[in-house]
Amino acid sequence: MLPDIRFDERVRQVKLTQREKKIAAYLEDHHDQFLNDTITEFAEKVGVSDATVVRFCRHIGYKGYQDFKMHAARDMLPKERQYNPVLERDDEPATICNKIFNSEVSVLSRTLLGLSVGELEEIAEHLRNARHIVLFGTGGSLNVAKDAVHKFMKIGIMVYVFDDMDLQHMASSLMGEGDMVIAISHSGSNLSVLKCLETAKEGGAFTVALTGYSRNPIAKAANLTVQIASETTMYQSESVSTRIAQLAVIDTLVALAAFKDYDASYEAIEATRRATSDTKF
To answer: What is the mean pLDDT of each run of 10 residues along the chain (281 residues)?
Structure first.
């Protein structure tokens, strides 16, 4: 592992292959333009493969492309702007509130504009008719998946999510025709989630990706993709605005699925309400 020095210094200290030199040359000319690119977008701009980008990042001492981007952002952005670039250190509390709320409203609006109603209806139809439905995700995306379990169960649709990644991989290996997967990953580059989606799809399951506005590996692997907007930040995968938009899409899918058979949904709502009534004052 190379010492903790700037990413551009690391590039100068190692012997690069011809393809890696091509990446280095691109970074030198576009050092402030790649932070919001997925690995696929970056590779296409440079004219190399995703695998070459990963090898380059590891060659200069990083775990992978995401690790490289995070360190590059730390080198390039002022420390106080790495949490959220719209915020300034001397912002008043009222200004911070306004900026955060406006940012989240913007993300919701941009997500709405990018939605395909026809594709959402197709997903809702699969949700109503699928034999088994499993959601895959890690970190904050896993929390969105857990919220979805609660909401779908209220309308009588049983969906499953597993905290343990081994269990997620095991579940994906057992999925087949008539089953459905929803993979949640804003970056679209989570290797475990991608593997689960691909395994389930190979078995015959219908796969949906809930991911960011970009061409990324998970989006490319899924049968259908629902794209989520985000604000510009080096920690997009941790973005609260992104989570809110993901939850809004889940709420939309729940509503669409409920109205596919509202009588059955209403019976489930009443049954689940009675089942939990004793736990409330």
So the answer is: 65 86 87 75 89 90 85 69 70 90 89 94 97 95 95 96 96 97 91 96 98 84 92 56 91 97 95 84 66
Question: Quick check: is 179 in a domain?
Answer: yes
Q: What CATH number is attached to the domain comprising 196? A: 3.40.50.10490
User: Is the torsion defined by CA of 239, 243, 246, 252 positive or negative?
Assistant: negative
Same domain, 51 and 129: no
Per the structure, the complete domain to which residue 256 belongs is given by 115-279
Q: Which pLDDT score, from 0 to 100, does residue 80 have? A: 57
The answer to whether 59 and 211 are in contact (CB under 8 A) is no
Q: Does 24 map to a domain?
A: yes
Question: Last residue of a domain, which of 33, 55, 78?
Answer: 78
User: Contact, 103 vs 231, CB < 8 A?
Assistant: yes
CA-only gyration radius of the chain, Å:
21
Q: Which two tokens stand for residue 130?
A: 């699928």
Distance between CA atoms of residues 12 and 209, nearest Å: 38
Residue 189: HSE in the Cβ half-sphere, 13 Å Cα cutoff: 21
Statement to judge: residues 135 and 225 lie in one domain = yes
